[in-house]
Task: inverse folding
């Protein structure tokens, strides 16, 4: 969800990523910041995203994240894997 959000929205800070995920889900998902920030760190260490410090809309210092080329490839792979998994589950549900 983080990679897809950054692909769709461009560079965002952590709070912006969380809010966008919640909005996209129709507020059915609530993002836990204790989970989000370690996930962002992991994605950055893997090279899927990069970050730089900037100023948020309310003039606060914030780390902004953006998708890298590696992240785009990872998103494509994860999308294919998800579609395959969803198709398998759909076969069982329709049986």
Result:
């Amino acid at each position: 969800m983080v990679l897809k959000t950054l692909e769709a929205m461009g560079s965002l800070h952590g709070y912006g990523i969380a809010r966008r995920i919640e909005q996209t889900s129709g507020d059915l998902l609530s993002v836990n910041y204790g989970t989000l920030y370690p996930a962002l760190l992991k994605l950055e260490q893997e090279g899927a995203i990069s970050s730089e410090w900037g100023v948020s809309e309310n003039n606060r210092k914030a780390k902004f994240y953006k998708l890298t080329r590696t992240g785009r490839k990872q998103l494509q792979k994860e999308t294919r894997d998800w579609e395959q998994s969803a198709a398998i589950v759909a076969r069982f549900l329709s049986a």
Residues 69-94 form the longest helix (26 residues).
